[in-house]
Specification:
With about 425 residues, the protein is an alpha/beta fold. The protein contains twelve helices and 15 strands.
Length: about 425
């Protein structure tokens, strides 16, 4: 049964919740630094749990620390409809990336409570652990274990820069649950997220109906040359690993442009050794990030990188190692869930367009085990993973209105 178009969430309450959560783990420039499994992550979890308790939800936690807040349905045999995202942030992250999806899910529950509406299927609001992957690689770690992509033991052994592991830090902050990861069965999963790109704002669209997610390939490259004095080493006698990284950076850009318009590529993380002002780098370690919605194109870009980077290394006299360190195949989201989102936007009178997600999300893994789709709202200048990340209250409300209608229609209103 379609949800009546006059049913809307409380946008002011949603915005107040976003601002309250943003007080935990404040950044240095107006955003947030609430990295996964830190003390601030624990504080954010505690606040979310309090709000869930206040809304009458029961809380389950699995062995990866993922939080599942459940509102019962009228049919005890019906599989739940899940909705959510993540509360962890980048070191210099914004107030909305991930958080909007979790608190938007909570706002759905609050609105149903306000209106005394019952659904056939239970609704579960999720906070996935370590979506960002900035402290513990790879990203979308807990949802990856849930979907069977990673094993629990492998995930527990992931280390941060200080050698602390996921398993140790989960215990330290007190958020190791007893549920088997992935044991839950889903009727469907919906995720609301800011676009993290400029298309919706540029085209003045309220809603992005996410039909696909780009595939991703992370390749770690290590170039080894010879450290030597920058002032006294003649140019012909240098074996400069920094020069090699610079040329590979140019190569990556050229490869992405050659597969326009959907391909993207860049070098994000890099380490230079010994990283001294007057020493020619003897070693560089960096990660190449390629993305495209066609798996064959991603594989072609990887092959072009291997051949081109090898030639660059040979020309300079560098040793080279190339190792895949992360990635996932392109995603096609469930037609039924996508239609529910598109229909909700039309019913509510919001302008919308189909869109391909350029970033990875927990929904990309959950799509493997349950019908899944995503809603996106605009963000200012397409900026994300940055403390200047910004959205308007109106955008947040529109996205959550569409999420509300899609989730509740899928869960089934009981007359």
């Amino acid at each position: 049964m379609a949800v009546a178009s006059n049913l809307r969430i409380n946008g002011e309450r949603l915005w107040d919740s976003l601002m309250e959560m943003a007080k935990i783990g404040p950044g240095i420039a107006g955003g947030n630094n609430r990295q996964t499994l830190t003390d601030d992550d624990a504080k954010g979890r505690d606040l979310f749990k309090k709000w869930c308790d206040d809304a009458g939800l029961s809380m389950g936690v699995d062995q990866m620390g993922t939080m599942f807040a459940r509102r019962e349905g009228t049919d005890p045999e019906a599989l739940p409809v899940y909705v959510g995202s993540h509360l962890d942030t980048q070191p210099t992250g914004g107030k909305y990336d991930g958080v909007l999806g979790v608190l938007g899910g909570l706002e759905i529950i609050r609105t149903l409570n306000d209106m005394n509406i019952q659904t056939k299927h239970p609704i579960v609001v999720v906070n996935w652990t370590n979506e960002e992957g900035t402290r513990f690689a790879p990203p979308m770690l807990a949802s990856g274990v849930f979907a069977g992509t990673h094993t629990l033991d492998w995930a527990y052994d992931r280390e941060d820069a200080e050698g602390k592991t996921v398993g140790e830090e989960l215990k330290r902050i007190g958020w190791v649950g007893d549920e088997e990861v992935g044991a839950r069965k889903m009727h469907a999963f919906f995720e609301l997220h800011i676009e993290q790109g400029p298309i919706l704002e540029a085209e003045e669209k309220d809603i992005g109906v996410v039909t696909h997610g780009q595939g991703l390939s992370w390749m770690q490259i290590t170039l080894t040359g010879r450290e030597s004095h920058t002032g006294s080493t003649p140019m012909p006698m240098r074996v400069n690993a920094g020069l090699g990284m610079a040329r590979v950076t140019q190569l990556v850009d050229e490869i992405a442009w050659s597969h326009a318009p959907l391909a993207v590529g860049a070098i994000g993380h890099c380490d230079v050794y010994p990283n001294s002002r007057n020493i020619i780098p003897g070693k560089t370690v960096f990660t190449v990030d390629f993305r495209h919605p066609d798996k064959a194109i991603i594989e072609a870009m990887e092959n072009e990188l291997r051949e081109g980077a090898q030639k660059i290394a040979d020309d300079i006299g560098l040793e080279i190692e190339m190792e895949p360190v992360g990635g996932f195949d392109p995603v096609k989201f469930d037609d039924g869930c996508v239609t529910a989102i598109r229909s909700a936007a039309e019913r509510l009178g919001y302008s919308h367009r189909d869109i391909v997600s350029g970033a990875g999300h927990d929904a990309c893994w959950i799509n493997r085990v349950a019908p899944t789709a995503m809603v996106m709202c605009p963000c200012v200048d397409g900026l994300s993973h940055n403390e200047a990340e910004d959205i308007s209250p109106e955008w947040a409300t529109a996205g959550t209105d569409v999420l509300f209608h899609a989730v509740v229609e899928t869960a089934g209103i009981v007359d």
